[in-house]
Amino acid sequence: MSREEMDALGWDECDIILVSGDAYIDHPAFSTGIVGRYLHHEGFRVGVVAQPKTDDDYLALGVPRLFWGINSGNMDSMVNHYTSEKRRRHDDAYTPGGKAGARPDRAVTVYAKACRRLSPDVPVVIGGIEASLRRMAHYDYWRDEVMPSILVDSGADILSFGGGEWSLETIAHGLSYGWDLARFRGLPGIAMICDALPGELRVREDSKPDRRGEYDVRRVPSFETVRKDKKAFAEASRLQILETRVGGHGIVQKHGDREVWIGPIPEPLTTEDLDSVYDLPFSRRPHPSYTETIPAYEMIRTSVTIMRGCFGGCAFCSIAAHEGRVIQSRSPESIAREVRQICSEYPKGRASISDIGGPSANMYRMGGKDPALCRQCVRPSCLVPKICRNLNTNHDPVIELYRRIRSIPEVKHVFIGSGIRYDLALRSPEYIRELAKYHTSGLLKIAPEHVNDRVLSLMLKPNAKIFDDFCEIFLDESKKCGKKQYIVPYFISSFPGCGEREMLDVAKWLMDRRMFVDQVQSFLPTPMSAATTMYYTGYTPYLPIEGQEPIWSAKSRNDRERQKAILRYHDPANTNMVKALLRRYRL
């Protein structure tokens, strides 16, 4: 991060400089930490410029020999800055002291333009969550308009989407060999702009799903078309979802007279590959130049990532679009090594592990029994409306992992902070028993999101009875082991298809159980999620668009605030309104 450090290493220049919207934390839970360590392991001299504001900040390490690598940090900068009601946040967990204002809005675009201006001849590569989910034309909630691919606005040369290790390794080695930028077009995990597609490229021009693979790329409606036609936007979203699978194809989308060419979803990392990433020599600390604590680091410093990916397919979530649907799991040995390293950093060599998980807590080592069938499957979810018959739902590996970690003498406690996929957990009473007995500290946070069946079907979440069944078994197992424990449910208000009547179903569910929620998450439309398509267009991208009945969404501040108020029925300011609505709907 400084010239002094470069001098100490004997470096006259950096091969790659990573520019990030987060403070630099050398820890495997932070994207810049992983990318930096991985590229350094591949033999490249890597510098980090964290949260730059001035030209001097960008040029603190000079100009990179190969490329600038730019990300907004672990969060999308707009989500980091604004609430779901578009109110400015007053803090930033990824900044020393938790102070807001350390990064700009649309950080990737701002950083990319600055790097291009300061060094016009050096390639600019963008990646991370902000770039990954804006790789094609997308709806922007904060501007309330459809925006082009971030490649267009940022002027970047290459976009790396997904986990990024393999694509960035390819880019770094390719540029070091002197490759022309055109050689990266169409590669998995890479998106680029080109003036015209190669003549030999087989392009599927219609919108039918296809499992035979008789084409190289699928064309989706152009930016100009989706910007003015909501049905075309929904259709482009549907086609993108069809190709969000290993074995899928690339996507091309016209932007004016140029093509945005998005490569296919990369092959998942093997267990050995993932171990090699997480076994890198992370210091697991913020850079020593920081004098204030970084809240996000304090929260996650004793957590351990055991897998990537998610096959749940929840409509409001973009994990599959970013990390893929295939679960990529680390080995128990690699996980245990990381746990021991954490313990060694604490007084008396003992530590409580705050989480053993990933996008989900209990999908570890799960996947298709026949992977060949998965490569052809175009279902957005392996779990809804029913759990796929080809899915291995065996919880034995994750149970054995928990037991192995608990058996390490230096470990005081192991808690599970990642979300429990409760429909899967019902397949294993033993898993629920272990969870209740050993891995819950009184409160189990879990996210049914809603209880109305129609809204749940739009969310691609299981019906409410499945959640009730899980709660009953978990509380019963807690009682058997002599623990008084509670479930804290999370719900979303103002989801597409949810009106006051549907929100009352959730309030009634809470009333019947004498439960109260103080914090309510109002739906936030983020780029590239199916739910955002529903919110903007009124159509679900899971089905052919023609013939659909439009889906209503709460968009005005008044409608959104009323839905939040219904969930907080116990607040005296909301009680009379909720009672009147219950009478109106005879509930």
Task: Please tell me what the overall shape is.
Answer: globular
Class of secondary structure makeup: alpha/beta
Please work out how many helical segments DSSP would assign: 24
Query: What's the story with the biggest beta sheet?
Result: 10 strands, mixed
Q: Strand order across the biggest sheet?
A: 3-1-4-5-8-9-13-12-11-10
Describe it:
The structure is a single chain. This protein is an alpha/beta fold and 587 residues long. It folds into 3 domains: 3-193, Response regulator (Rossmann fold), CATH 3.40.50; 302-441, Transcription Regulator spoIIAA; 443-523 and 556-587, Transcription Regulator spoIIAA (2-Layer Sandwich), CATH 3.30.750. The chain is 36% helix and 15% strand. The protein is built from 24 helices and 25 strands. The strands form 8 sheets. A 10-stranded mixed β-sheet has the order 3-1-4-5-8-9-13-12-11-10, with helices on both faces. A 3-stranded parallel β-sheet has the order 23-24-25. A two-stranded antiparallel ribbon has the order 2-14. Strand 6 and strand 7 form a beta hairpin. Helix 18 crosses helix 20. The protein is globular. 49% of the residues are buried.
